[in-house]
Each structure stands twice: as C-alpha cells, then as structure tokens.
Amino acid sequence: MEQELQLALSGLLAGFTYALVAVGLTLVFGIMGVVNLSHGAFFALGAFVTYGVVQWGGGSFLALPVVFLLSLLLGMGLERWVIRPVRRHHAVVAIVTLAVAIFMEQVFQLVWGPDYHSIPRELPLVGFMGTTVDLQQIAAALVAVALLLVLFGLLRTRIGMAVRLVAQDAEGAALVGIDVPRVQTVVFGVACGLAAVAGNLTAFAHSIYPAMGRVPLVMSLAVVIFGGLGNVHAALVAGLILGLVASGVSFYVSPEWSYITMLLVIAVGLLTRPSGLLGRVGRRD
Fold first, then answer.
1. 283 found inside a domain
2. Do the domain assignments include residue 285?
3. How confident is the model at residue 273 (pLDDT cuts 50, 70, 90)?
4. Which of 60, 72, 101, 112 would be a feasible disulfide site paired with 41, CB 3.0-4.6 Å?
C-alpha cells in the first residue's frame, strides 16, 4: 500500500509538472504559431533561482513568486525584443529560441558553476494510515493544481476570451479592438513563468545543473503533440497520463525505461488518434 501511494504521488507530481510546462508551450503555439525552444531553459531558471533563494536562507515555496515574476518579465522581454521581429519566420524563431536556451545554460554555468546542486526538503515524511506520505510532494502537486485551476479559470473570463480570439483569428481580433501584440507578449511571458514554476516545484526532487531543462523541453513537446497542438485541456490530460506512466515504469521496471515508454505511448496514441488525445487540434493564425 505504501509503495503504491508513493508511486501515485510521484506520478501525479510528474504529471502536473509536465502539464505546467506543456500548457504554457501549447498556449504559445496556439496564439503565436511558434515553438519556443528556450522553454526548458526557463524550467532550469526556476530551479536555479530557487536554489539561490534557499542558499540565502529562504525557502523554496517562498521563492515561488520571485521565480514566476522574474521569468514572466524575462519572457515578455524575449517575445518583445527577440521573437516578435522574426515571428513570421518559424524556422528562424526555432533557431533564435534555441540560441537563447544555449545562452541561458552558459549563464547558469557562469553563475552557479557546472556542478550538480540540490536543495533540502522543507516538509517531512509523515505516517498516515500505516503508510509514509511525502508532504513535499503533496504540497508541490497542490500548488501546481491551484495554478492550473487559476489559468483555466482566467481562460473563461474576458481576458481568456481575448486570448482565444487571438488564437483563432489574430486579424479579426485586431479589428474588434484587441491589442494582439500585447496579448501575445503577456501569454508568452506567462508561459515562461509557468515553466519556471514547474522547475521550482520539482527542484527538491532532482539535481540542479545547467542543462537540466533539456529533458523537460523534449517531454513537454511530446505532451503537446500527444494532446494536440494548441489544445490546453488535452495538454493537461496528456501530462497526467505520461507522468503516471513514467512513475510506474521507473518503479516496476527501471528509470532508464521511463522516457522510452512514454515515447512509445505517444507513438501509439498518435497512430490511433492522429488529431490529438481529445480529437481536435487548436487553430492558429
């Protein structure tokens, strides 16, 4: 029972982490039609900023607003000054954002060095109904759920209506008075902030090193494709499915097989549902 509970908690935390990163990535694709290859570097930024705050005597959860605001501002600046001038050239955007990711990795290495770092758990393991429960995992998963609920709630407001309208028809949105460039900038910044928050929430569970954002980038791209390009709800479902699969395979088989198994699941899913997990692909301009 204890093993199954820990397995479920690990799977849910991994799933919500994938969902946080992937939802931001699919929002950017849905509203701008581009893929941000620096997304994983923002995940690493969240982990490194958390590590820095902990080193200065703060806590990882206290670092959460700092991580989000810093990544939000950096993401908005990246979209405004780097991506917007070349946005209509998708191959150039991919190259530019990949260069940004490499640059950020070099900055991490210069500031924190090439070594692996870790942060201590702030919350203990406790006994519950004859099993051991990891309160840190539960707290991280609850924060991820709360953020996703806030995000999906905002998408149902007038702000979300503007975002959806820009994603469906940017020219039409501009005609009805929506500031399309501003919406795109804010959405890009929020997506980067969500990726960084995912890095913050899982910093206690992984080694922190400059290139740590590469695997989350690849997996979030896989989640986005599995769920359906531009479909935020499908990205959430796909993230949870793949997180639970990865946790189960890591426990019962081997951690080395977890990513291979997830890619096999994605391949089978795309063969059976080419339009995505929930059967539709988000529209974009």
1. no
2. no
3. confident
4. 101
Do 60 and 66 touch, CB atoms closer than 8 A?
no
Domain that holds residue 209: 2-272
The predicted-structure confidence for 252-271, as pLDDT tens digits, reads as follows 887 778 778 877 877 887 78
Residue 156's region, left for phi above 0, alpha for psi from -120 to 50, else beta, is alpha
CATH code for the domain of 68? 1.10.3470
Q: Is it the case that residue 282 has pLDDT exceeding 50?
A: no
Q: How many domains does the chain have?
A: 1
Q: Mapped to the 3 state alphabet, what secondary structure does the chain carry?
A: CHHHHHHHHHHHHHHHHHHHHHHHHHHHHHHHCCCCCCHHHHHHHHHHHHHHHHHCCCCCCCCHHHHHHHHHHHHHHHHHHHHHHHCCCHHHHHHHHHHHHHHHHHHHHHHHCCCCECCCCCCCEEEECCEEEEHHHHHHHHHHHHHHHHHHHHCCCHHHHHHHHHHHCHHHHHHCCCCHHHHHHHHHHHHHHHHHHHHHHCHHHCCECCCCCHHHHHHHHHHHHHHCCCCHHHHHHHHHHHHHHHHHHHHHCCHHHHHHHHHHHHHHHHHHCCCCCCCCCCCCC
**Residue corresponding to tokens 């958390």:** 50
* Domain membership flag for residue 37: yes
Specify the pLDDT at position 284: 44
Compute the average pLDDT of residues 99-105.
Answer: 97
Distance CA 221, CA 195 (A): 12
User: Are residues 243 and 249 in contact, defined by beta-carbon separation less than 8 angstroms?
Assistant: no
Q: What is the pTM of this model?
A: 0.90
- Structural domain includes residue 170: yes
Per-residue pLDDT at 72 exceeds 50: yes
pLDDT tens, 42-59? 999 999 999 999 999 888
Per-residue pLDDT for 104 more than 90? yes
